Structure formats: structure tokens, C-alpha cells
Amino acid sequence: MRTRIIAKLDVKPPFVVKPVHFEGLRKMGLPTELAKKYYEQGADEVMYIDIVASLYQREILFDEIEKTANELFIPFGVGGGVKTIDDFSKLFHVGADKVILNTFAVQDNPDIINQAAQIFGNQAVVINIEAKKWEHWYECYTDCGRIQSGKDVIEWAKEVEQRGAGEILLQCVDTDGRQRGFDIELAKRVVESVNIPVVVASGAGSLEDIKELIEYAKPSGVAIASLLHYDKFTIKDIKEYLGLNGIEVSK
Amino acid sequence: MSNIIGLINYGIAGNIHSIKKAIEKAGGVVKVINTKEELESVEKLVIPGVGSFKDAMQELQKSGLLDALKIAATTKPTLGICLGMQILSTLGFEYGKTKGLALINAEVKPMIVDAKVPHMGFNKIDVVKSNRLLNGLENEEFYFMHSYEVVNYTNIVALTEYEGHKFVSSLQQNNLYGVQFHPEKSREAGIKLFKNFIEL
Fold first, then answer.
1. Any CB–CB contact under 8 A between B110 and chain A?
2. What parts of chain A have a pLDDT lower than 50?
3. Distance from A122 to chain B by nearest Cα, in Å?
4. ipTM beyond 0.90?
5. Does B185 touch chain A (CB under 8 A)?
6. What is the mean pLDDT of residues B14-32?
7. So which residues of B are the catalytic ones?
8. Which terminal CB of chain B, N or C, has fewer other CB atoms within 10 Å?
9. Residue B110: how many other CB atoms lie within 10 Å
10. Cα torsion at B178, B182, B187, B189 (round to 10°)?
11. Backbone angles phi and psi of A53, in degrees to 5
């Protein structure tokens, strides 16, 4: 299977921002412009996450999302502040193909995963896990890496699969935005504990980091943010490098 | 000749926005179809699909489109996309057993494969019987996003291999076409497929 290379936009409307450890935001550009740029570079998907909607308990900004979707002819995953089946429905109507969910499912009502999967199909429900490393385990965080949940990452990953999630986006509070490599042990453990695709984010600092992650943990996809936002590499550069190193990617 | 493509809108689960945009990019004119009367005003049909087999059939029934669509899909050139292809089948086994539109002799069953499911991402199609819809797209990659597959032995146009498992990625019966992948999410190759459909 071709490993998907996904561009991830962390959005604090109206800007794409780049947090370090989910804090200290820097403005990177507008979602519409960056989404289009990464689409043209050959991204397999774009993920758009409103990183402050849950924290500020604000409504989802559908207009912004629709404008971004209009530029894309590849799958578009959207998350941040999703709480109801109606939110899912509205997001699909403005152009999302997958809805990414974390805080509400962890803190309030995990049954929303079952309901959404039954109505929209498993493939449309992505669970975002924000993992934080402790000495002997990993804990799920919410609200963009700010709130502890007490839930074990591996147990939660298995539970969301059981409930009907079609995919996991695995982020890591410790490595996010630092560009010093992924937590490949965490990635491997999550990939091996479920039968649904796992997309791994948080930590790409070099092409070697991405190669190491794919070879060691075998995720279905890799989500890249900083490397692209800072123009260190393009999606095309990443795919060419991976292809030369024997890793199958799409054209 | 007017050449309006009717996009079937059923229930809350359809992703009609993306498909409308892609057909328009390919130069087509789209009319969203909500009632059976509107079916008569278009030359071609696209049946989208995001959701489950059972919900899709229930929504078609509720909207009053079901019986009219069964007839229209055999008289006008019609393209079913993903779930929209799956419901052309006789039976579906997602959340119980559900009767489909029964236009193609097929069943929809869970993918059984030694790999992650849903099958998600770009993958190649192997065209085993050329047709006008897939003309020029024989070596292209398309985006797949599904956990179920159509089991059929008589109408196969293309197959796709996922980790050693081959499944039907495109079907055709006269003017009725189905694709398991999402052309609206498959970059230029997908736009080209819609161009081919417009030119049928």
C-alpha cells in the first residue's frame, strides 16, 4: 500500500499557525492558500484542524472551511470543536470528506463515534489522539494538548476502533512542532494495536525522520506541517526521496 | 444538445458538494436532484455516496426517489460513485442485510484482507475491459476510501489490488457505470473521468 503523505493545517482562524508543543503559535499563512499550494505539490490529502474551537468553546467556522475545500480535489479532513451529528453533516456539506474528532469523544460522549460511523460510514470518522508520554504509558490529552484525560492511548485506540472509527490521527504532545523526529515507539505501538489505518503526525524535521517512521512503525500515512510551512521541503521532495528509498508512495 | 448531469441528493450523508465542484471543473453542468419529478429534466445521472448501505437505501425510500431512480438509471447514462456504485447491487450486508437497487447482479460484502481496513488512499486500477468512461485512464491512480466491496462476476471493467487482495473497482452494464473509488478526490485523473462521462 502506498503510504499517504498528508499536509496538516493547524488553524487559529483566520491563520494557519504552527504551535511548538501545542503552544507558542506562529502565523504561517491562510488556509486557502496553503491548502492549494500543498495540493499542487502532490499532497494525498489535506487535514484542517481548528485548534482553538474546543478550547474557546466556539462554534465551527463553516465558511472558512468551505473556502479551503473549494481549492481541493483530494480528500479533506476537518476537525476542531465537533460535538454533534449535525456538525458532521454540515461539515460534509461544505466539502469535508472526513471529520476529525478528539475532545468531545474523550471528555463528553464517546457514543458519538458509533452514531457518526453508522450514519456516515466508518471511513468518514477520524479520531485524533494527542498522546503524552509518561514513564510507563501514554496518556490521551484534549483541547490541543492542554487537558489530561487519564485515558491510556492504546486502550483508547482499541476502543475507538470497536466503536466504528475508520482512522486514527496520532499526534504527540512531546514531539509536536519541534522538528526533531517522531516518537516512533508510540507510533509502532498504536499501529500494531488496531486494524484501522493510523496516520502519524508530530515531529518531522528531516526526510530521514519520515523514512525512519515509515520503515519502523509502518503507518498508513504521515501528516506533515512545519517542514512544509517553513518551505524546508515540498511534498514532491518528500515523495521523491521516499520513492528512491524503496517506500511506495502515490505519484 | 443540452447535457445536464443530475446529482442525486439523498439524506444527510451525501458528499454532493465535492462531486458538483469536480464535474463543473470538468466542464459539466450540474443540477441537484431532490425529487423524482426533477429526474426527468436531466440527461445523465450521478449517484454519490458517503455513508452506509442501509442508511442510503432508507434515505432513497424516504425521499420518494427510489422507484423512479431504478428506471432512470437504466434509461439515462448513470455513474455510481463508491456507495453509489454499491447500492446498484442486489443486496448489501452493512449493518444487517439490505436490498439494493438491484440493477446489477452483485452483493456488497465486507473486505476480507490481511491489511488495514478501511482501504484508504491512492491506488492503481487495472482495466480488464476498456470502455469510454475509463478511456485514457488505464494507468492512473485513484483515491479509495471503503470497507466494503462489490462481489460480481459478470460486469467487471476494472480491478484493484490491495495487499494481495483483488476486488472490483469499476463495473459497467450498458449505460450504467460504477466506480468504487472517488474521482472527485483523485486530482486530474478524476477530472478526466468526469470529462469522459460528460462526453458519453
1. no
2. none
3. 8
4. yes
5. yes
6. 90
7. 82, 182, 184
8. N
9. 11
10. -20
11. -60, -45
- Residues B81-103 have pLDDT tens digits of 999 999 999 999 988 899 999 99
CA A109 to chain centroid, in Å, comes to 20
**Three-state secondary-structure class, residue A45:** strand
Site of grid cell 465535492: B18
Over the stretch B26-57, which tens digit does the pLDDT of each residue have? Answer: 999 999 999 999 999 999 999 997 678 888 89
> Min CA distance, A143 vs chain B (Å)?
27
Which CATH number does the domain B4-199 belong to among 3.40.220.10, 3.40.50.880, 3.10.20.580, 2.60.120.10? Answer: 3.40.50.880
Q: What is the mean pLDDT of chain B?
A: 93
**What does DSSP say about strands A4-12 and A221-224: parallel, antiparallel, or unpaired?**
parallel
Write down all domains in chain A, each with its CATH number in brackets: 4-244 (3.20.20.70)
Give domain limits for chain B: 4-199
Phi, psi of B28 (to 5 degrees): -90, 165
pLDDT value for A144: 83
